[in-house]
# Entry
Amino acid sequence: MLTGKRFVCKSAIVALETMDGKRVALMVPKGSSVQVLSGPSSNDEMVSVQWQDRALTIFATDLRENGIETKAAKS
# Structure
């Protein structure tokens, strides 16, 4: 499970954002930090992440292949 883990993108990653009820594709740039909010479940290869102040959905495979896990900041 990736929930709660933080990653830095080694390369740009395609993400989906829901805007006005529609999914819109965008790129999370190389060097960006994302935190996994939930996922993936056994039936779903998508994960919900937070990037800046945005909630996005990305493929878990893209995150594993194009992300470097970092230690989460302590609260």
Remarks:
- The domain at 6-70 is CATH 2.30.30 (SH3 type barrels.).
- Residues 60-66 form the longest helix (7 residues).
